[in-house]
Amino acid sequence: MLDAQQPLSFADADLRAQTVFQQSASTGMVLVAVRNREAMIKTYGEASPASGRAPAANSLVRLCSLSKVFTADLLLRLAADGKVTLYDPLQRYAPRGKRVPKEAGSNITLEDLATHTAGLPREAAAAPRKTPHFTFPDQAYRWAWLPAQRLITPPGTAALYSNIGFDLLGDALASAANMSYAQLLHDRLLQPLNMWDTTLVPSAEQCSRLMQPIKDEGPCTDTQASGPSAGLYSTPADMVKLLQYLLQIPGASAQPAAALAVVLDPKKLKSAQGLSHAGDPTGIGLAWIQIGDPSTPSAIIEKTGGGAGFTTYVALNPSRQTGVFLAATWGKGDAQVDLFHEANSLLAALAGVPELPPKEQGSRQVKRRPKPHRPQRARPTSQPLQ
Known about the structure:
This protein is of the alpha+beta class. The chain is 24% helix and 15% strand. It has helices spanning 10-23, 67-80, 110-114, 139-145, 163-177, 181-190, 204-207, 236-246, 339-351, and strands at residues 26-35, 38-45, 61-62, 159-160, 233-234, 272-273, 281-284, 289-291, 300-307, 310-317, 322-330.
């Protein structure tokens, strides 16, 4: 592990990010950094190919799987209100007449869904051809699909990254609150934080600001169908507010500290898959992954995202009240850098702590029953869908 370092200035962080962008094969990139009461927004490249326009603080980006962070926050808010507990069975919030499968006599709980340990697959099915991103499956489809499933592992025993699990969690929270997920998100989180450009239903004006990758990835549209797992749009300016909230910066609305707490030790699970894109996990939280030894100042909490032409990432060093958000649109060619690794290194430099050791291992694989292959939508091989 490298020695501790003097905290990097924002000006030098900008220079480092410029080099990362040049090696990333991205069309455009935005970086948000928050450290204590300081905040920085920097943009690189073009908002859309051949436009000659740089991205801006109000450029719209797809958050992709960072949307799960918002869903986990709502879970904790409703738990604080006494409307749900983390140990409630999903069955309690299922539509009338719909059965949630069990395995080895164990029920899927809301915590299982939030920690990817429900025994569910990554997706319910591949989206039909030409379906706009993050509009499939809708609530009716997933609840018709779920009762016929056999869980891959008993709930709580193994981790397998699951988008469909978070969509079902969002459905449960909406049911508990007796409103739509989009309304719940707006009322309980986005409005209190004044995140006015963060939405599942972008206006035409907001869509005109959406950053574009090299390849046409389809329309900017209503993504309520997958809002809990991947559908959110936001801006760098709004992500400053989110980072300040997550890091409990004085003067900003503060998220409860327990929201970033580790819930599970991956070493105590039978297996883990799909959680190591940014580094080897040392803890699993509610949507969050911990990387690094928690007894050291270098440990971070992170969430990766990707899809629809975007790679996205949030990484936090709570001990130094420092965090970064990065979003990059896919371009031509293969990246010469790992954006998640570079963001982790930049975070360590900004926080003035030793860098994390390099990733040493892949995810431990879950042994699953054979199932028919479902072709996935084509995307650049250098940009994994998170």
